[in-house]
Amino acid sequence: MRRLALLLLLIAVAAGVAGCAGRGLHYVDGRVQVRFWHAMTGVNENALKKMADEFNVSQDNYKVVPIYQGGYPDLLKKLVASFGTGSMPTMIQLDDIELRFMVDSGATVPPQDFIDRDNATAGTSQGYPAPIDLSDFEPRALAYYTLDGKLRAMPFNLSGLVLYYDKDAFKDAGLDPEKPPATLEELRADSEKLLKRDSSGSVTRNGIALSIDAWKFEQMLAKQGALYANNGNGREGLATGVVFDSPEGEAILAWWQDMVKSGLATNVGRQGTQAFISMITGKSAMAIESTASMRTILTALGPASARFGAAPLPSIGTNPAGGIVLGGAAAWIMKDRPDVEQRGAWEFLKFATQPQVQAQWHFDTGYFPVRVSAWDLEPAATLHRDFPQFTTARDQVLRSPQNAATAGAVIGPFTQVREGIDNAFEAVLVGGKTPEEALRKAAEDADRAIARYNRSVK
Amino acid sequence: MMRTKRRAAFRAVTSLPWYVLLVASAAVILFPLYMTVVDSLQDVLKLLTYPPDLWPRTPEWSNYREAMTDIPMRRYMLNSLIMATTITSGQLATSILAAYAFSFMRFPGRTPLFFIFLSTMMVPWEASIIPNYQIIQRLDWLDTYQGLTVPFLATAFGTFLLRQHFMTLPAELKDAADIDGYGNLRFLLFVVIPLSRAAIATLAVFSFLQAWNQYLWPLLVTNDPHMRTVQIGIASLQSEEIQRTNVVLAGTVIALLPMLFLVIAFQRFLVRGLTAGAVKG
Amino acid sequence: MTAAAQARARRRRRWLQQSLAASPFVLPSLALFCVFVFYPLVRSVWLGFHATDPFGRREVWVGIDQYRDVLTSSDFRHSLLVTGQFALYTVVGSTCLGLYLALLVHRRLPGILFFRTVFSSTVASSVAVSSVMWFRLLNPGVGVLNYVLGKGGLPAEEWLTDPKWALFAVGMTTVWMNVGLATIVILAGLQNIPEELYESARVDGARAWNQFLHVTLPALSPTLLFVSVVGVIFAFESFGQIDILTKGGPLDSTNVIVYSIYREAFLHYNVGLASAQAVVLFVLVLLLTLVQFVAAQRWVFYR
């Protein structure tokens, strides 16, 4: 009996102690601790730590502590698990597709609020240093994260899709290494020339290694100036369904299916790394992948990196209204933390988005700077000199028109809808479905998921 | 003399086909493990080439050193060890106590209560993960050892197993103990447990194996890489460290070794525990 | 007080004393079961009646909508089919392979102990370890299994990326994982068959094959039943292999019910819908186990 009572007491104490991890302020060396949950690894994590250290050294009030919490899905899961507990962070980095989800949660403070506060108190005794001026910020990224006229999150790490291609392979096939294909039709034609077989007839090199990623579908749709969701991509009003089962959407799947079925492309599954491996080992001459790994890969290749060029994402046909969607990931400030912590997070974001800091961030990680003027500052300029592939990526951003299609879609259950698109790819590649059938199923499932989501957050 | 030699030769020849089958079957069963060991000793680029090597030309033993230092295998194994030991101790404690009550004590509602215990074996764990997760979440026990272990500290199977064994102990023992003035606790500690070492060891091996092997629950309640158990650690390394698959495979072999040792050393108990339900039906 | 009333009072006092004495022994287990087994079951049913918001903060009553959704949706029925197929592959596979291996080592030969250990060794390999090992064998493009099959003249397949083969591949991995256990149990069962049964069969002139059919199999039936019941439960609980090898794909061809529940609750944040699926899973497993026991009454021979 006594033993049982003791056991119960122990459990109660443990629970109590755990619960006391407190919602309160944490002070570290006399400063307010600002916890920043992020998904950066390797080189990018080091760059983030460096940025945080520089901020911490530059002032005495706050200490930003970056904490790695896994990939973006893990981050979101952990955030949702922390609602209502003391372990919620002050700031969290989440990928672009969580925009609707985070806004609907009502758990964040839009940067707009801080901007307005700063502007209102500028020049007065309670004014905060350096109110932010958004005019130099990358407008497309701001447009992505602005909903109903308010900036909801601060863009933090931006990337895009480019076409990587093997210049040596181009030369070997009699193609001009400085003229990569500008449209998907040209890509197909070039692939036919790049196809190489050995004496026994098996393919030793084909045109392109393709990895399945729903994000690519979104980008290719925007390149054709087409919408993903209704109500202006969910920006003119709440999106109630998707519209990607359109001729433009089908054209993407049809091209993909044709390339793989005719042997001009390899389907490497859902991992982008495999596509890079295929290209680097010479099995494929091209790959369409994110710029997020450009820095790591080009640095690893060293002088050999000159062999691989970068070109803007090819489109289907040419549409002057077509462009890329610049989402990437953004930093969100959480409302359920003490005001002084929120202010610390905001001060950090102001620091982090200064042109010089952004130029360094671009140099360290390859992510696009959030400040337009940062592109021309050192050390970004050096990066572009050493690896001209980055200049191509930059030009693609700066030339992209801003309209509803390139602003990006805003829907609640984006992860689920993306899974549907991944399945649609597989359905046309190995499941024997036509692009029209595959997209219709994906659209039906997406509509249902969006309806359920909208109903549950009303 | 000649007859025994001929008989021996005859037996050797007739056993040959059995040995062929045995060796062939063993080769098939061991093949995945064999390939893993081979790959763990290769250079990482070798793993990307086809056709694959079935034998490491130049074994890279450094992969094993890397597996213990560069990837957090030690931390993962420590977490698994703490989790499995805690669960095993908890299950032993609660089952011994409950099984004792069901075998040696009489109290109202004993039989219905025993069936209630058994009924928990009908509920598949996976059907209750969501509420269990919510409980752990609300207690703020995510990423803690408590969250990993507390839901599993009781086991109906263990109670059943031990009760089976306790029932085989002669009733006179209890009578003698009563006469000598032993309370229930003393009787349990000084008479029953020493006489049940084999059954308890069986349960211990079983519980430890099951706990070590858990996948879904640790996946849900741990996000912090420092709290990962070996199973989750290996799974996440496999997808995160693609450029170091050989080191990850070395880590996998390292993770396999303690279990292999446990199973081979404690084979007897394992067999006994598994057959407790089987042969009797 | 009458004598009867006195007797009743004495009995009640005795019951109270006994209960008090027994409670510290049963309460720990009972408390844990109530909190972590019974309450969650009830709460799952309750959650199934509510649609939850993705942030886990609000629940809205929707009645039987979600249950109806689950039972009529083609996606869930597909998961059911996949789970059933998977159970078939793994139970038949492990039982047959286990039977073969157990029979093989159920003889007196020098060194047989070594082979017994080898055949039961897969019980040491956990879900994650086995899956990582098999991923290497089944890996698209550089998988070793295809290479070996090719050498043997057997067809190579895209095991993990072809929706026709993915479930079979995951099944193969699971059979390998379970075969150690199956061998141990069936071997023990074989060793328990009394020699006299074989003696009388031999006296009756039965050859080896007939002995197998009329002595071994019937005597093994309780063991085989146990292996298949456990196998079905394992199959319905399978998660790790699928999470590591295929994540439910390709094209949901390996989306067993447990994986579907996990995905719905923890990746899509649809807790209510996932709970409805979980409750249906519980009812299914219950029914299946009952069916197996009823079938056992008809086909299993007890001595």
Keywords:
A: alpha/beta, D-Maltodextrin-Binding Protein, domain 2, 2 domains, six-stranded mixed β-sheet, 20 helices, globular, B: 281 residues, MetI-like fold
What's the CATH architecture name of the largest domain in chain A? 3-Layer(aba) Sandwich
Count of spatially separate domains of chain A: 2
Quickly count the helices of chain A.
20
Query: Biggest β-sheet of chain A, characterized?
Result: 7 strands, mixed
Strand content of chain B: under 5%
Kindly report how far apart the N and C termini of chain A lie. 51 Å
Stretches of chain B where pLDDT is under 50 for at least 5 consecutive residues are: none
| Strand-residue proportion of chain A | 15-25%
Provide mean pLDDT of chain A, rounded: 88
Structural class of chain A: alpha/beta
**Category by helix and strand content of chain B:** mainly alpha
Element pattern of chain B in H and E: HHHHHHHHHHHHHH
Helical region count of chain B?
Answer: 14
User: Rg of chain A to the nearest angstrom?
Assistant: 24 Å
Question: What is the CATH first-level class name of the largest domain in chain A?
Answer: Alpha Beta
Number of domains of chain B: 2
Give the chain pair forming the largest contact, with residue counts.
B-C, 96 and 95 residues
Q: Tell me the overall shape of chain B.
A: flat
The level-1 CATH class of the largest domain in chain B: Mainly Alpha
DSSP E strands of chain A, number: 15
By CATH, the superfamily of the largest domain in chain A comes out as Periplasmic binding protein-like II
Please, could you describe this protein's structure?
- The complex is a heterotrimer of chains A (458), B (281) and C (303).
- With 458 residues, chain A is α/β, with parallel strands linked by helices.
- Helices cover 48% and strands 15% of the residues of chain A.
- Chain A folds into two domains: 27-159 and 327-386, Periplasmic binding protein-like II (D-Maltodextrin-Binding Protein, domain 2); 161-323 and 413-456, Periplasmic binding protein-like II (D-Maltodextrin-Binding Protein, domain 2), CATH 3.40.190.10.
- In chain A, strand 6 and strand 7 (150-151) form a beta hairpin.
- In chain A, helix 19 (414-429) packs antiparallel against helix 20 (435-456).
- The longest helix of chain A is centred in the C-terminal third of the chain and has 22 residues, at 435-456.
- Residues 12-22 of chain A have low confidence and may be disordered.
- Chain B is mostly helical.
- Chain B has two domains: 14-60, no CATH class; 71-278, MetI-like fold, CATH 1.10.3720.10.
- Chain B has 14 helices and no strands.
- In chain B, helix 3 (73-104) packs antiparallel against helix 12 (230-240), helix 7 (156-167) packs antiparallel against helix 10 (197-213) and helix 10 (197-213) crosses helix 14.
- Chain B is flat.
- In chain C, strands 1-2 form a two-stranded antiparallel sheet.
- By secondary structure, chain C is an all-alpha fold.
- Chain C has two domains: 3-48, no CATH class; 74-299, Orthogonal Bundle (MetI-like fold), CATH 1.10.3720.
- Helix content of chain C is 75%, strand content 2%.
- Chain C starts with a helix and ends with a helix.
- Chain C has twelve helices and two strands.
